[in-house]
Amino acid sequence: MSVFLLLFLPTAWLMDRLVVSHTYQQKHKEMNELALHFVSMIHNDTLLKMDALETMADFTRVTLFVLDSQGKVTATSKHHHEIDPVFLTEEYVRTLQAGNQLEKNITIDNVSYTLTGVPMITNGSLQGSIVILNSLTDTEEMLQSHRQILYLAVIAIMSAAAGIIYWLSRRISRPMRQMADATRAIAEGQLETRVEVLSDDEVGSLAYAINHMAEELKRYRDSRNEFIANISHELKTPVTYLEGYAQVIQQEWYETEEEKQQYIGIIADEAKRLNRIIQDLFDLTKMEEGQLSLLPEQVDMNTICQSSLLKVQHKAEQKGLQLQISAAESHPYIWGDPVRLEQIMLNLLDNAIRYTKAGDVSIRVTTGTEQIRISIIDTGQGIPPDELSNVFERFYRVEKSRSRQYGGSGLGLAIVAKLVDMHQGTIDVQSQESIGTTCTITFPRLLT
Question: H or E segment at 436?
Answer without folding.
Answer: strand 436-444
